[in-house]
Design brief:
This protein is mainly beta and 283 residues long. It is built from 4 helices and 18 strands.
């Protein structure tokens, strides 16, 4: 395959074949030959605490956590009375056996820094052989859930290290909590997006219907992202900057102010809150 150049500027790349690939500002190819493609190398840059990966003109932003976190189980909600008599609605979060470091990823081995944490011990037959092999390599117990915490540095972490919540967080700290919301099934626009209903009188023919979803001939279609009836809930959501009200070491539970995603028994991911100027650079 040969390329001819019109401009004086050209770049030649040796190939395993007898000929070479030549690129220039003006490229012409032989129509009888089949097209060939050159895979561009990936480049990674650090920008604002995020890893930016360039791949064929596409930029992928990978978020970096403010610090390592843990996984927990939602137990329910209750009212907590402060010493001054103030009543605070809190969510009680418990911990099952786990929160053990199962793998440490570095720039040299994986292209980024991260700590993989396992949670919730299960029986051996509940896991596949590849999963068991991965955990046995780290010397860890069989665990159901594995999640990564992408960090700027992984210094100080060791494989099979147990993460204790009260050593990572204190009362009064702000955390970001992620979880799967309660599934509501297929719902209409009123329940899903808080739309207003029409008149409920006898003559009305639009009580809870959605109404118009667009114009006529122009544009002749429904715009993408139009709020319409559909499946509601059952998605991953993050609630940011929630305050830790109480840490009970005896009961092995914590109390977080406000509501958390999901129902009792749901898996939660707790990480330090990202605060610009404190643990996230201002620039």
């Amino acid at each position: 395959m040969a390329f001819s150049s019109v401009s004086s500027f050209s770049l030649s790349i040796p190939s395993s074949r007898s000929n070479s690939l030549s690129f220039s500002t003006s490229i012409s190819k032989n129509p009888s030959s089949s097209p060939q493609f050159l895979k561009l190398p990936q480049q990674q840059q650090q920008h604002d605490g995020r890893t930016r990966t360039k791949r064929r003109g596409m930029v992928v932003m990978m978020s970096v956590e403010a610090g390592v976190g843990v996984m927990a189980t939602k137990l329910g909600m209750m009212s907590f009375f402060q010493p001054n008599g103030e009543v605070v609605p809190v969510t009680v979060v418990g911990f099952k056996e786990g929160n053990i470091v199962t793998q440490i990823k570095t720039d040299a081995t994986d292209g980024y820094n991260a700590v993989q944490v396992g949670y919730r011990r299960v029986r051996d037959r509940k896991l596949t052989k590849p999963e068991m092999g991965h955990l046995e390599k780290a010397g860890a117990i069989p665990m159901r859930h594995l999640q990564e915490f992408r960090l700027q540095s992984v210094d100080g972490f060791e494989v099979n290290q147990r993460l204790v919540f009260d050593e990572l967080f204190n009362e009064g700290d702000l955390v970001d909590v992620s979880g799967t919301t309660i599934g509501k099934g297929f719902q209409g626009g009123i329940k899903r997006y808080n739309f207003k209903r029409g008149p409920m009188s006898h003559g009305s023919k639009s009580h809870r219907q959605l109404g118009s979803i667009g114009a006529g001939t122009t544009p002749g279609r429904v715009y993408k992202g139009k709020k319409m009836p559909g499946r509601m809930g059952g998605t991953n959501r993050k609630t940011r900057k929630l305050k830790i009200v109480k840490i009970d070491k005896d009961l092995n539970v914590i109390m977080i102010k406000g509501a958390l995603p999901g129902k009792p028994g749901n898996l939660l991911r707790i990480a330090p809150a990202k605060i610009v100027g404190k643990n996230i650079p201002k620039n």
